[in-house]
Amino acid sequence: MLASLGGALLEMLHPVPFFWVALGVVSGIFVGAIPGLSGGMLIVLVMPLTFYMDHTLALILMVGIYVGSVAGGLISATLLRMPGTPSSVVTTFDGYPMARGGQPARALALGISASLFGGFVAGFFLVVLSPPLSRWATSFGPWEYFGLVLMALVLIAAISQGSMVKGLISGALGLLAAMPGLNASDGQLRLTFGFHQMDAGFALLPVLLGVFVVSQIIRDAMDGDKVPEAVDVSRNIVLLEAAAWVRHAWNMLRSALIGTWIGILPGVGASISSMVAYGVARTVSRRPDAFGKGSEEGVVASESANNANVGGALIPLVTMGIPGSPIDAFLLGALLLHNIQPGPLLFQTNGDLVWAIIAAYLVGNVLMFLVMSTTVRFTARLANINPAVLLPAIFVFCIIGAYALSNRLFDVWVMIGFGILGFLLQRAAFPLGAFVIGFVLSPIFEAELRSAVMSSGGTIWELFTRPIALTFIAVAVLVLFLPLLRGLRRRPGDGPDEAGQTRQSKP
Question: Which segments constitute the DUF112 domain (predicted)?
């Protein structure tokens, strides 16, 4: 393991791989710092450009974007109270008050340092846990994979912002969107409605471009110009002093562990990680009243957790082929576009690629720290860029990427159609992450379910003889019905009164 990691790190320092990692990190920081844009959008946009690249270089470029964009969201969250990424929402609670209180450089230094620390803690677990988890997952049969995917979909719906029902509906729509085309089990066409262009179903790239990028373009175009003036950062370099590292070390470590382990859960996301870490930090703090008013502990907890979440979410991706977040779903799609089969056999069939991804994540965190610490005055100005200026160019790249996939105008219309669908889902508060992951996991879900039923003679009773699969199903059922159980436990006399306070029923 150490030999493989060492070789991958040395290979990553060669000029060509290092260039692609650095390009990914810098561009990710650039996009993450601009409100309205995201690392997921950039990854989907560059995916068509990687068709003729070496698959290893393509993946390390996207991992670099992933790392850079999550950290870059700190800039606009701190200076503008406009999180560049959803995971930076919690950073606004204390980063923005610090910036308005005359300490923007201090807030950025805390966030950048915590991001580096969280990234390395998650990197440790990524290196240590991935090989044994991959070997354990090779014992999975079709029932285990069916249960795992079902659990992932339910977790995504349960943890999605807003209603669980809306999360489930969004995930189900994603599953449905992946069904048109050739049925692999019997070779028959289904849900094509006579359109021969749909014989192969909806291609992954146009769907991703539409749902995640075009929908955001429509949303930004309708919202208009909403870019406030940024806080000026006068310092060229922001570094945290040694005493502050020591003072915040336990908070960084605790928050990084929370972010890593929540990241391992499929579909939970960095937003939940930062919220949980922030809540824990406030609970154990000696100065809980300072939170929300410019607390250093709050900035450290949020940024350490959301960057650690990136490494945690990569663990189920490289070991079992299950995306831990929407961006990991894009990376999974990139593997499929490069004809690489994700799953537990990935370590055996493409071990060099897996270790290259891990090495790119570690090197990317170091580059992120160096770039953001030494170019803070420039990166702070990125928050002033009006996203509307970039929207026309982004839309053109979307059209080119969708058309270049198969040289079909049909794919462009698919992209636009799913863009409108994504916009409508967002307006109705349906989570797009659940839709995307449902679409990506649908072929695995269906194939494993068919294989499991066929191998057991057309019945589902074999499921109850397989402890691992049954555990996955049980977790999914528990998560699905937990809100209902909580509602039943609440007594009829309890509830909010007219003043909004909780009223207790009399004994």
Answer: 19-436
502 φ/ψ sector (left φ>0, alpha ψ -120 to 50, else beta)? beta
Taking each continuous run of H as one helix and of E as one strand, the counts in the chain are 22, 4
Tens-digit pLDDT profile for residues 151-196: 777 766 665 555 677 878 888 888 888 888 777 666 677 777 777 7
Instruction: For residue 403, give the DSSP letter.
Output: H
- Residues 60 and 51: beta-carbon distance below 8 Å: no
- Written as six digits, the tokens of 363 are 């090197």
- Eight-state DSSP code of residue 495: E
**What b/e readout covers 218-229, taking b as 16+ CB neighbours within 10 angstroms?**
bebeeeeeebee
CB 123 within 8 A of CB 445: no
10 Å Cβ neighbour count for 320? 25
Which amino acid makes up residue 331?
Answer: L
What CA dihedral angle connects 303, 304, 307 and 309, to 10 degrees? -120
Backbone angles phi, psi at 345, to 5 degrees: -80, 0
Dist CA 335 CA 121 (whole Å): 26
Distances (CA, A) of 293 to 81, 111, 355, 507: 13, 16, 42, 40
Q: What is the pTM of this model?
A: 0.73
Produce one character per residue of 121-138: b if its CB has 16 or more CB atoms within 10 Å, e if not.
bbbebbbebbbebbeebe
> Where are the chain's structural domains?
2-227+240-488
What is the token pair recorded at 231? 């806080």
Determine the 3-state secondary structure of 345 from DSSP: coil
Q: How far is CA 7 from the centre of its chain?
A: 28
Q: Dihedral sign, CA of 433, 352, 50, 403? A: negative
Task: Give the H or E element holding residue 382.
Answer: helix 376-382
- Per-residue pLDDT band at 363 (split at 50, 70, 90): very high
Instruction: Residue 200: name the closest of 499, 36, 410 by CA.
Output: 410
In contact, 35 and 89? CB cutoff 8 Å: no
Q: What does the angle CA 306 – CA 332 – CA 361 come to, to the nearest 5 degrees?
A: 45
- In angstroms, rounded to a whole number, what is the distance separating the alpha carbons of residues 139 and 458? 22
d(CA 23, CA 33): 15
User: 489 CB contacts (<8 Å, ≥6 apart)?
Assistant: none
Under 8 Å between Cβ of 386 and 225: yes
Q: Whole-angstrom Cα distance, residue 380 to residue 371?
A: 12
**Contact in structure between 181 and 190 (CB atoms under 8 Å):** yes
Query: In the structure encoding, which two tokens stand for residue 316, read together?
Result: 């189920």
d(CA 281, CA 256): 12
Residue 244: CB atoms within 10 A of its CB come to: 16
The 10s digit of each residue's pLDDT in 58-103 is 999 999 998 888 888 888 778 776 665 666 767 877 888 888 777 7
